[in-house]
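Example A, followed by Example B.
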Amino acid sequence: MSIAQTLKHYTCHDLTGRLKDLLRDVGLDRAPLPVAKLAPLDQFHSGGLSATIELANELRLVAEDRVLDIGSGLGGPSRYIAATYGCAVEGIDLSPSFVEAANFLSERTALSQRVRYTCADALSVPFDPGSFDVIWTQHVAMNIADRAAFYSEAFRLLRPGGRFAMFDVVESSNEPLHYPVPWARESRSSFPITAEATRELLGNRGFQITSWSDRTEASLAWFAEREKSRAYDSNVQALGLRFVMGPDFPHMVKTLVKNLREGRAAIVQAIAQKP
């Protein structure tokens, strides 16, 4: 049930066709399209492009790293990694509309030789054990009910010494979350757990945590700054995630911010290594 609900939440009719029209309307219909220009649209997580840059810097990526982006969405983080570091990146996502759009945007940014997207379930990824040097996830785990199976699959896919990078929302109090939020319109399709439970599950799966930081305040500052930028940049408004997620998306974001401010939720960034 949860997979069907999640897929429905992230399904957008004729997304690729609408993206073509949108890029033409905002004057971005010439190739190659700079990766940074798409950030308001394809960096689908708190902190946007700045959070992606920070996590990538923490990983110290090199061109030889093979990266798997789980829950790749429209592909913003994976295209940033490929363009900046020269890595080969595979992206998987449940949503066929997101996968099609991500591949289209990779063609438009001249990155289709380095980045590829396919439909797949994060609990059953169609790659051999030890296929990747890095597994990357940003705001993905909250949609996954069986977190233990998710971390076990990530462990299987990594080579020895490989790293699992995460940037996720966690529960931080006994008070329930307010809904809707960007990843779920109701609680039955939302599965955040506490930071403590996350660390325990990663350890139980065999991971060794090498870095861990709370990014809640930084994310709140980013949300505030983003609201200011929307007031004067028409392209930011046009390219925003409301275009993908629907007219109620700004309300979802405000609800997430409310949860963060009230201490019901927090945002953590972490890297865990496979021995």
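Example B, a separate protein, is given below in the same form.
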Amino acid sequence: MTLTEIILAVAGSPWAYLALAALLVVDGFFPFVPGETFVGALSALAATGSGPEVAYVLGVAVVATIVGDAIAFVLGRRIGLARWAWMRRPRVAGAFAWAERGLRRRPAVFFLAAKFVPIGRVAVTMTAGASGFPVARYIPLSIAASSFYTLYHVAIGYAAGSWLSAHPLLAIIVSIGSVLILGFSIDTVMSALSRRRQRRMLMADDGDGALGASGSRD
């Protein structure tokens, strides 16, 4: 049996949905699991006609993503943002600080945009829980962001599979590559915007300090 035949056999079985759900639930609170790439891969195979049903992939993925986010929200509320060693790594700690700033300014937009940033989506959800973000406000934002986020990855995977229907493995590679490129691009843009905002704040603080010093000399 070839590698392609093995992948298609696994993807066409009910175990594929179970694996998808498990990956996305864990991905919701542990940011080192490639849940979204598996969504794209299964969607690509669905488009070739030799994989799972795309409607089932979308439904399972949306529900599992919402559940994973809910776990992250509860963990943030119960244990805070520094309990485990991986939370204290510089990049992760920086992501929590970034998430806190974003949630204070534009929570609805931030919930959606952060979904596409690998560590960002976990950081935002856990920070929301730890900061006492209202549950009644969190639930609709989580459902909307998870649905849009999942629909995007399903669409990318399905488009790749339709384009490369005769080459299932190549379709998987293209769909995964597209998902990773988007996440990296959004991460880069949001990081640049955050750094620029911090520079502006520092300049404003320096200006206020200079004015204060000038006033005191007078």
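On Example B: The chain has nine helices and no strands.
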